[in-house]
Amino acid sequence: MVNLTSGQWGTLYNVFSFGLISMLACTVYTLVSQSRVLPKYRNALVLSSMVTFIAAYHYYRIFNSFAESSQDGGVMIGTSQGAFNEAYRYVDWILTVPLLLVEVIAVLALAKAAASSLISRLVPASAAMIALGYPGEIATDNGTKILWGVLSTLPFLYILYVLFVELGKSLERQPEGVAATVGRLRLLLIATWGVYPISYLLPIIQETTAENAASSFVGRQIGYTIADVLAKCVFGLTIYKIAKLKSAAEGMKEDH
């Protein structure tokens, strides 16, 4: 049981609510924006909508789990029945992180062989990254957390290599402005994904006391949620911007 102050409990309640409504709003926006891009780029927007819809569902589950695990100002954590279920995040990530990477490839409309090659490498690596992180998330000792954290970092580094080296080769053939936007998109991915390991490491960094247990739990959930909103909503809106730029470069006129 982690004892939270009323301020900490209220903060998390509002943060989870913010995550939920952000995902829902972004889902609606990307769905209604389909007609503003050429048909060949609409798959990327569909993928973006799927990502935020899946995330919205899991934030609904996280929100309910938080409320149900709260007792007398504390929150029960762990893997027992009635405890706050951290697995919802990992189920969300193992579905949405591969889709995020496929979004980038879809909006660039690469040659079929190049796209298939990138997908066949990025999707398994992203799934491995998430799967290897979960045992460390639920571990109670720091040694186990660090071990699984290091193992999870290996596919993450491979993903960065593919995104910056392999994907970079295709950007020279993109319309003006698109390469720069994709470059910012990759930096956004690194910046937001960098928040996850920091949040993951909070229980290790802070000294183990009852007070620090509460603050590390709160900090971890806030960090994960902010990173999710940036990595899914802001990422999805950037994908939409790229689709519009490419559509305009290929002669599509914007309705006024």
TrEMBL record:
What stretches pass through the bilayer? 12-32, 44-60, 93-111, 118-134, 146-164, 185-202, 222-243
Q: Which PROSITE patterns match?
A: BACTERIAL_OPSIN_1 (PS00950)
GO molecular-function term, one example from the UniProt record:
photoreceptor activity
Tell me which Gene Ontology terms the entry assigns under biological process: phototransduction
Q: Where in the cell is it found?
A: Membrane
**GO cellular component terms, A-Z:** membrane
Pfam families to which the protein is assigned, alphabetical = Bac_rhodopsin
Q: Which UniProt keywords apply?
A: Chromophore, Membrane, Photoreceptor protein, Receptor, Retinal protein, Sensory transduction, Transmembrane, Transmembrane helix
Q: How does it sit in the membrane?
A: Multi-pass membrane protein
Question: Which InterPro entries would you find in this protein's record?
Answer: Arc/bac/fun_rhodopsins, Rhodopsin_retinal_BS
Q: Return the similarity comment.
A: Belongs to the archaeal/bacterial/fungal opsin family.
Q: What is this protein called?
A: Unannotated protein
**Source species, please?**
freshwater metagenome
